[in-house]
Amino acid sequence: MPDWRRVKDRIFTVATVLLALLAVAPLFHILATVAIRGGSAILRGGVSFFTDPPAYPGSEELGGVGPALLGTLWLGLATSLIGVPLALLTAVYMVEYRESKLARATRVFTSSLLEVPTVLIGMLVFLVVVVPMGRYSLAAGSIALAIVMLPYTVSYVERALDGVPRTYREAGYSIGMTRAQVVFQVVMGIASRGVAAGVLVGVAKVLSETAPLLFTIGSARGSYPTGPQSLLEPGDALPLLIFQFAQTPYSNWQDLAWGSALLLTLIILVIFTLLRLLFREVKL
Amino acid sequence: MEPVEVKVSDLNVWIGGSHILKGVSMKAPPGAVTAVMGPSGSGKSTLIRVINRLIDLIPGARVEGKVLLGSLDALRADPYEVRRRTGMVFQEPNPFPHMTIYDNVAIGPRIHGLARGEELDRLVEWALRMAHLWDEVKDRLGDYPHQLSGGQKQRLSLARALALKPRVLLLDEPTANIDPVSTVKIERSIMEYAKTAMATVIIVTHTPQQAARISDHILFIYQGRVVEYGPTREVVLHPRHELTRKFLGGEV
């Protein structure tokens, strides 16, 4: 006579394990495909994969994604310069002036911003920046990406700052610190890991965004390597290149898209590894 | 530096509609320890938070009356100036967790530009000695507070306050959650600092025993009103008020 309770327990355990595997299977499939197909494209291209512009469509040569890689790095930097200070100050305001109407409104707006399709943000920047300037530019792309970054970084940083116990603020004030000193030397210091996580999550998010770039940066691959020489010129970015090249019938461009996908994945992996290594949890 | 007498007159405090302190008047002389004693919820912590204007941080607090620190009108002065002259130790040990032991003590003098280099080293050592913590941490000043025991953390918080050599030192039940050894050390520090620096020390406590051990004067507050104020010996041995007698006997 089998022990039915044991059997049922076994069935349940096996079922949960299988379902868990099912849930992560797509992730592994994506990672494996990207690693294999992207890896072979990068190996074929060698160093020139990172430095050269793409070869002509349909040609036997592969070329590289130099302009897109450069553009992505520029976009990451410029977006951080615009978005990070804005997000930090917004989060500080929301935590420090929690009760004020403006802070409550800001909270509602930033969380709504999270729900706005990023393509709309691209269109907004197209109307407000690109049309008046008369050209696509990396600067316009950075502005669009900074808007995308804002709600992610703000909500992370806000939660981190909020988690700092009140007693440390009181301690700061009690030795005569100003509000700014309490915020930047005490609260931010204690919450440094959460703040850094918010910033890096925001950067990682925008590095892989495609939609805000569609109407803003102009996917310029031709002017390389002489350009873009400033942020006011059009440029390219890895996710945009993936989006556009993957849809073409040319196998050399499809390979470039695979290689870019792996490259982008690796960049984001590096960012999260840095987060783990550089910022340790402050023990209370 | 000039000794400073703390003088509170007719102080009323409301927080979010409830009347916390009802016409409190008191004095705390320099060179002595004044204990503010009373059951929980009697308004003791609020009283010392008015003296250093930490009350400003509490949303919905309203204060009326007069608080003098020597000649400084604390309720009208710049709160940062008031807090710089007063030090405070809280019920929970709260050294800054992201700063080393050294930096925790040095931060006050640093932000006010009072000392640098070797002079700062000497000041840090002095404050840690004053807090009876130096011998335990002198070889590990670069460690972080989470490596200390609760009692050591509290002495570090005390050293942080002392490093600014405050004329007025406020303590809000500093030994409520602290081991007996650290409690004794903290009590000694407080008494020594009051005497040697001619500082005005005000300590909030809910245990009459502690008040009797370390204070020169006792202020007994009950439900936001001053019930009794006088030299410690008199209040403890010959309480004039029935409530005080009950509190000392552990009945309130």
Question: How would you portray this structure in words?
Answer:
The complex is a heterodimer of chains A (284) and B (252). Helices cover 73% and strands 0% of the residues of chain A. By secondary structure, chain A is mostly helical. Chain A has a single domain, classed as MetI-like fold, CATH 1.10.3720.10. In chain A, α1 packs across α12 and α7 crosses α8. Chain B is built from 10 helices and 10 strands. The longest helix of chain B is centred in the C-terminal third of the chain and has 17 residues. At the A-B interface, α7 and α8 of A face α2, β6, α3 and α6 of B.
What is the secondary structure topology, with strand pairs?
The complex is a heterodimer of chains A (284) and B (252).
Chain A: H1 4-45, H2 48-51, H3 66-96, H4 101-113, H5 118-133, H6 138-162, H7 166-174, H8 179-190, H9 192-207, H10 211-214, H11 238-245, H12 251-278
Helix pairs in contact in A: 1-12, 3-4, 3-6, 3-9, 3-11, 4-6, 5-6, 6-9, 7-8, 9-12, 11-12
Chain B: E1 6-15, E2 18-28, E3 32-37, H1 44-51, E4 61-69, E5 72-73, H2 79-85, E6 86-89, H3 101-111, H4 117-130, H5 134-137, H6 150-162, E7 168-172, H7 180-196, E8 200-205, H8 208-214, E9 217-222, E10 225-231, H9 232-237, H10 242-248
Parallel strand pairs in B: 3-8, 3-9, 6-7, 7-8
Antiparallel strand pairs in B: 1-2, 1-4, 4-5, 9-10
Helix pairs in contact in B: 3-4, 3-6, 4-6, 6-7
